[in-house]
Amino acid sequence: MSVTIDDPNEGARVLAEMVTAAETVVVFTGAGISTESGIPDFRGPNGLWKKIEPIYYDEFVTSETARLADWKRRFTFRDQIARVEPNLAHLAIARLVARGKVNAVITQNIDGLHARAGVPDERLIEIHGNATYATCLDCGERHELDAAEAAILATGRSPRCGCGGLVKAAVISFGQAMPTREMERAEQAIQEADLFVAVGSSLTVQPAATLPMIAKYDGARLVIVNGEETPLDGLADRVLRGSIGTVFSAL
Ligand code: APR
Ligand code: ZN
Known about the structure:
Blueprint lengths: L2 E3 L2 H14 L3 E5 L27 H6 L1 H19 L5 H11 L3 E6 L5 H5 L6 E3 L2 E8 L5 E2 L1 H11 L11 E5 L8 H13 L2 E5 L11 H7 L3 E5 L12 E3 L3 H4 L4
The site of adenosine-5-diphosphoribose (APR) has 22 residues, from loops.
């Protein structure tokens, strides 16, 4: 039976109590955890998809115009994340990882803020990739964003890898296959958890939004921390409304 707590201060108490009582916690995050750092989310009140359209993977692969538009967004985002810091919720989660209470942070976010808050690679699962670097779509070689920007400035064309392959920011775009290794790591972490905390996600994008369901069916308690309703609220043991920063303030 799902219980919703609207007062974020009461939510903070409940979250601290449930985390303390749990053996192993998985934290699953979405763009909502980074808005209090100054990065807009996608579907919240002033979400990005309310202003621009996403660029789909097959558009990127087939259209030079789409590739150049995608690169422009990546450089803007790079400059944006350079100006922001991890916030109180990122730091609280990193502390729980350091204490061994959280065995994995599964994030849909590509802003790198969990890593900057101190979550080590072996505990961080970036299922939608990472926007701080690029890779070749053919051979997987890593490429730096600044080099891509210099190449576009010099040639007016989107960058290619030495092998001839297309170079793309290391993020999973709509229509792109999910990273198998990360999804396996996520499912492994979920099996070990007795508490799954979904933070700042509208839980509307698949297959990411199946992970809280798998956790629940695997017997974990499910807490959703989010300012707005999600399709999984009915499945959750607790739904904690209000600002994520406030709800995490007691951790
Ligand atoms: N406190 C509480 N809730 C918040 C806050 C906040 N400070 N800021 C935003 N939210 C909530 C919004 O109300 C919204 O429901 O966080 C949620 C963010 O949802 P989305 O914008 O849909 O972000 P996310 O769920 O991460 O999107 C999933 O979709 O666009 C793709 O690949 C992209 O990873 C992204 C995926
Ligand atoms: Zn290559």
